[in-house]
Specification:
Helix content is 47%, strand content 23%. The protein is α/β, with parallel strands linked by helices and 152 residues long.
């Protein structure tokens, strides 16, 4: 789902949830050639249904867009944790934006489950929080994803 190291943001600064979603929409629009406003609106619509802050300082905002051919993601480690209305009320500092095609019901859910499983690995999350460079974060995520797939 991560298209390369350019899909990883280390030390992203955001003042709050809406500002973070706007920044992710901007980066995602550039990286995946999407309409920034449409992506931002879809992310906000999803958050209105309930926070995508899954607990433990982690959020997985997600949206479906008709212009995508396959699920793609963007990972961000925040410079400072922000309030994200997470289910455990803890601030968020690890974020994985997942975007999927409009009609990708099962594929979207599988991708969401894969990201969720990956980020439930406490050891991985500790390493992600301790890693400074985008390249190193990308390597950790890819390696962990490969290991998770081979274990499944």
């Amino acid at each position: 789902m991560l298209t390369g190291p350019d899909a990883v943001l280390a030390n992203l600064k955001a003042s709050g949830k809406k500002a973070l979603l706007a920044e992710l929409a901007s980066r995602g629009a550039t990286l995946f050639k999407l309409d920034e406003r449409r992506l931002f609106d879809r992310l906000l619509e999803r958050e209105r249904l309930g926070s995508t802050g899954i607990g433990g300082g982690i959020a997985i905002p997600h949206a479906r867009l008709s212009t995508l051919a396959k699920p793609v993601g963007l990972f961000a480690r925040l410079a400072q944790p922000i309030d994200f209305d997470a289910i455990d009320e803890r601030p968020v500092d690890i974020v994985f934006l997942l975007t999927a095609p409009e009609g990708a019901g099962a594929d979207h859910l599988k991708a969401l489950a894969r990201v969720s499983r990956l980020l439930r690995d406490r050891s991985l999350v500790e390493k992600l929080r301790a890693t400074e460079s985008a390249d190193a974060l990308y390597a950790l995520l890819v390696e962990s994803s490969i290991q998770a797939q081979s274990a499944a």
